[in-house]
TrEMBL record:
<dbReference type="InterPro" id="IPR005946">
    <property type="entry name" value="Rib-P_diPkinase"/>
</dbReference>
<keyword id="KW-0460">Magnesium</keyword>
<feature type="domain" description="Ribose-phosphate pyrophosphokinase N-terminal">
    <location>
        <begin position="9"/>
        <end position="123"/>
    </location>
</feature>
<dbReference type="GO" id="GO:0006015">
    <property type="term" value="P:5-phosphoribose 1-diphosphate biosynthetic process"/>
</dbReference>
<dbReference type="InterPro" id="IPR000842">
    <property type="entry name" value="PRib_PP_synth_CS"/>
</dbReference>
<dbReference type="GO" id="GO:0005737">
    <property type="term" value="C:cytoplasm"/>
</dbReference>
<dbReference type="GO" id="GO:0009156">
    <property type="term" value="P:ribonucleoside monophosphate biosynthetic process"/>
</dbReference>
<dbReference type="Pfam" id="PF14572">
    <property type="entry name" value="Pribosyl_synth"/>
</dbReference>
<keyword id="KW-0547">Nucleotide-binding</keyword>
<protein>
    <recommendedName>
        <fullName>ribose-phosphate diphosphokinase</fullName>
        <ecNumber>2.7.6.1</ecNumber>
    </recommendedName>
</protein>
<keyword id="KW-0808">Transferase</keyword>
<keyword id="KW-0963">Cytoplasm</keyword>
<dbReference type="InterPro" id="IPR000836">
    <property type="entry name" value="PRTase_dom"/>
</dbReference>
<keyword id="KW-0479">Metal-binding</keyword>
<dbReference type="GO" id="GO:0006164">
    <property type="term" value="P:purine nucleotide biosynthetic process"/>
</dbReference>
<dbReference type="InterPro" id="IPR029099">
    <property type="entry name" value="Pribosyltran_N"/>
</dbReference>
<dbReference type="GO" id="GO:0000287">
    <property type="term" value="F:magnesium ion binding"/>
</dbReference>
Length: 313
């Protein structure tokens, strides 16, 4: 009698419940039942309200601030481990704390490495994530990491715009590799912004390397936090003669005055995924869902089939 692979169990942390429901629906099943008990001081405890013994468990949750989001993921991983789940996959559309991927000055932590070790200690046997801030973070794990690229979501949308005289831009030197990958696929030119910072999230000076006059420009980045870099770059490019400036960023952190900056900038639109839920709506922000991408990869992982076709970059 042939062996049939039992259906996995899919759960979501509270901060990613909306995306979790989309992923589960695209996967073809209901989101699992998990209950959170909360104490008056802010402490909380998750409880799976169904058996996960011997099952493959997917736990969906982005770990953007506050740190409660990371703590939810850790507690749910530990709960699944103690409930005798067979495989426990942390599905993290946005891997938080990723900007701390190295020691850039003395006496600071490598936060991303620490988070990787904590996730494994809590019970994660596999990680599925998207557009890490730095590729080397995969090496911080001793467990398999499926690092997906949002290019599989953004590129079809960009092609649908049918923009002529297209130029791909990187808002900083660190994102040049990503920009070149997009330009290779789109057959476009590339420009790069060179910026100097006084401190974190504060830009002192920005210069443009390349020509944008008479071009439709698409800025490419992995995340947008305060939106200072993107909006400053967009304004600079319009001053240099660009016909339009769009930005595609995978993770919409959008903290501080980000929404106000975007509204007052010369950006035509900001295109993001729903890896992080938006705090407010904006006519300039277009959201493309990553649910189908994650559901497809989860299905392939569950059935032990290749996910190579999901990598355009």
């Amino acid at each position: 009698m042939p062996y049939s692979v039992p259906d996995p169990k899919i759960f979501a942390c509270t901060q990613s419940e909306k995306l979790g429901r989309k992923i589960a629906k695209a996967f073809g099943q209901e989101l699992g039942n998990v209950k959170f008990s909360r104490y008056s001081d802010g402490e909380f405890q998750p409880s799976f309200e169904e058996s996960v013994r011997g099952a493959r468990v997917f736990i969906i949750g982005s770990t953007h601030p506050s740190s409660d989001n990371l703590m939810e993921m850790l507690l749910m991983l530990d709960a699944a481990k103690r409930a005798s789940a067979r495989h426990i996959t942390a599905v993290m559309p946005y891997f938080g704390w990723a900007r701390q991927d190295r020691k850039d000055k003395p006496r600071v932590p490598i936060g991303a490495k620490m988070i990787a070790k904590i996730l494994e200690a809590a019970g994660a046997t596999r990680i599925i994530t998207m557009d890490l801030h730095a590729d080397q973070i995969q090496g911080f794990f001793e467990r398999p990491v499926d690092h997906l690229f949002a290019s599989t979501i953004f590129l079809p949308y960009l092609e649908s715009l049918k923009l002529e005289n297209l130029t791909v831009a990187s808002p900083d030197m660190g994102g040049s590799k990503r920009a070149y990958a997009y330009s290779k696929f789109l057959g476009s030119e590339v420009v790069i912004c060179y910026k100097q910072r006084k401190q974190a999230n504060v830009i002192d000076h920005m210069e443009l390397i390349g020509e944008v006059k008479g071009r439709h420009v698409v800025l490419v980045d992995d995340m947008v936090d305060t939106a200072g870099t993107l909006t400053k770059a967009a304004d600079l490019m319009m001053e240099r003669g660009a016909l339009s400036v769009r930005a595609i960023t995978t993770h919409a952190i959008l903290s501080g005055n980000a929404y106000e900056r975007i509204e007052n900038s010369k950006l035509t639109e900001l295109i993001v995924t729903d890896s992080i839920p938006l705090k407010q709506e904006s006519e300039k922000i277009k959201v493309l869902t990553c649910a189908n991408l994650f559901a497809d990869v989860m299905h392939r992982v569950h059935h032990n089939t290749s996910i190579a076709s999901k990598f355009l970059m």
